[in-house]
Specification:
about 500 residues; mainly alpha; Serine Threonine Protein Phosphatase 5, Tetratricopeptide repeat; two-stranded antiparallel sheet; two-stranded antiparallel ribbon; globular; disordered N terminus
Amino acid sequence: MIFEMKMRYYKIIAVFTAMLFLGACGKDFLDVKPTDSGDAATAIQTAKDAKVIMNGIMRRMLSSNYYGRNFLMYGDVKGGDLTLYSQGRGLDALYTFNHSPQSNSYSGFWDTMYGIILQINNLLKNIERLEAEGSPENFDNIKGQALTLRALVYFDLVRLYGKPYNYDKASYGVPLVTEPLPASAQPLRASVEEVYNQVLRDLADGAPIISKSKQNGYINYYGNKMIEARVRLHMEDYAGALAAAEEVINSGVYTLYSNAQWVNSWGTQFGSESIFELGVFPNETDLGSGSPGFYLRRRGHGGGTALGWFMASDYFLDRLGEDPDDVRWGVMDYDESSNTRFGSIYKYSGGVDLRGDGKSTPTAVNIKVIRLSEAYLIAAEAALMKNPSDKEKAADYLNEIRKRSPNLAPATDADITLDMILDERSKELVAEGHRFFDMMRTNKPIEFNDEFPDLEIPHRPKIIDRTFFKAILPISQAEINANPGLKAQQNPNYN
């Protein structure tokens, strides 16, 4: 699909029919039966209809080209926390940075995310129509979810294709489309700053109307606040990031896992730390041998199709190895390089024993997109970096997560540093898609663990920083062919 906003090959009626089918199956949050009709003018008449469309959006977010796998891999493979034992098994170009407009452009990110935006825009437009017609239905919660998710998708898009906000916010971001477009539309790229402003606008519009209650499988008010905290951290609005993160922490809706609970939490659905968790179900959104669980486990573990795609880097293992009793070792196991090197990661297998999270297949493990531990880490960083700095508060928030390393001395206001917080983010959030973006926004160099025997990396140096042009993805040639105006807006040095 080439930029679905243009809908070059789709009529609106077909899109709505597809959405109804996409969202109609499953259990828990996928609990609406399918329908076989979806006229654009009448597809949504009730809040129940709108929920069907929202189910389809949730399901599409679990595409292998988004939170189902590749977006998670992108952040840690490119961020240096993961490495390859051998090339040729899949997604190598994320590690080697072998990108061009013609090959390995990973255009699936663009296509999938804009497809989600298309669904959201049509959903919002239909809700607006029904409200204008005086519908007695209350669409507020669904509308708040849609606005919040559009903010998340745009935030993810602009970080993939645009430079960091605090590096060059005037540079090209991505096209901003907030209304259904005619088939002839060819939208061009807005600036990074304009995209961030739209993200904040959607979050602000969604917050007052979205539910504050826990909604398993859906985003809620506190998910909205966590996205705001992430965005403001990237913008270096530390006071704003701290306020948003603290609102989540102080709400009492979520609680941190104890050290004894942490490992088993990965085999638990919708636990006490889970703020936004996407439900994965067998025969629906379970990617099987293409799942993140398969991509991160040891080669051959659980079947011959487990190829050992990625394992933890030496640099990550050194950080985690500061405390041999760190509870987070509980989701690690030995990898194919050595039976003493614990580089295989089992978060998305439910644990080292491949127990999954209670479903019939161990690869149908829910994706925990936003967890409470991240709120504490954002609060720690924001408190430290804001002006004036509050180092005591920063240390207190950091120590709530640092205690997962019981043999490490607690941080104090005298010794806490940004690097200490970033190291803790790495240990806590590994394989959840954050590390690369953390290094880019904080202007830190990334060193890659290229020392395994079969690795030859001609497309990037061993150490990169955010000035490396391949730190952002190219616009694919197929997209430029479909929308020629983007040629002049290609990312630097990809022409």
